[in-house]
Design a protein that fits this description.
single chain, 233 residues, alpha+beta, TolA/TonB C-terminal domain, Serine Threonine Protein Phosphatase 5, Tetratricopeptide repeat, 4-stranded antiparallel β-sheet
């Protein structure tokens, strides 16, 4: 079965982008922020087109017709190279590696991000969708989410989490799906898992999870305070 794929590129820009520039960002007057951009080559200046042409499909793709989504988070350094690759959404080790290897070939092809004209390390994110020809992947993802929504309303949170996770496997940047999975995790007491989902929603640029993030951070602060008191006693 022939495997066709689509590539979508998303930029992630948050306070984490300044992690290595803390001294600079605490100074007043820093207003001009320019995100990193892909310069590419003379023949292929577009990141989507470049990755499509340089991504080598693993053998498992043609043997089993695997489909799904890989999301990789990385940093663009002032040296114009990429580093700190982190797989946010995994399809399989083979597919994950294929995306990272393709990204690594872009070293030297980036214009670094700048803060007030000074090159700085900043974050980007790439989503690669591997989809079989004639696939109903997105339709299935929608059906899984709708069924998970019903289970969430019925209070069947563990089952809802499984279906939300399946849906996210095909649509990893669906803020509402991730948010509702986070709610389900919260209701079963998986506070760490809920926090991860809510923070992911926030990273995607949505304020949907802000109230829950505030609540969970308050819980974490109280828990740490209790631990400190118990250690003193």
């Amino acid at each position: 079965m022939k495997l066709s794929y689509l590539i979508f590129v998303f930029a992630l820009f948050s306070s984490l982008a300044f992690a290595q520039n803390e001294d600079e960002t605490t100074k007043p007057g820093i207003n001009n922020v320019l995100e990193p951009d892909f310069n590419g080559t003379t023949e292929v200046p577009d990141i989507k087109e470049y990755i499509e042409g340089n991504l080598c499909l693993p053998k498992i793709a043609q043997t089993w017709g695997v489909e799904g989504t890989v999301v990789v988070h990385f940093k663009v350094l002032p040296t114009r190279d990429l580093s700190e690759f982190q797989v946010i959404q995994s399809l399989s080790p083979e597919f994950d590696k294929a995306v990272i290897v393709a990204l690594q070939t872009t070293n030297g092809m980036w214009r670094p991000g700048t803060i007030d004209g000074r090159p700085s390390s900043m974050e980007k994110e790439m989503t690669v969708v591997f989809k079989n020809e004639g696939s109903q992947m997105y339709t299935t993802a929608q059906l899984n989410r709708e069924r998970a929504d019903d289970l969430l309303q019925e209070g069947k949170y563990s089952r809802a989490i499984k279906l939300y996770t399946k849906s996210i496997g095909s649509c990893p940047n669906s803020e509402i799906t991730i948010y509702r999975r986070g709610l389900s995790k919260y209701y079963i007491g998986d506070l760490e898992g809920a926090l991860n989902d809510f923070e992911r929603v926030s990273d995607l640029g949505s304020h949907l999870a802000d109230p829950m993030l505030t609540k969970l951070h308050e819980v974490v602060v109280c828990a740490n305070r209790e631990l400190q008191l118990s250690s003193i006693l």
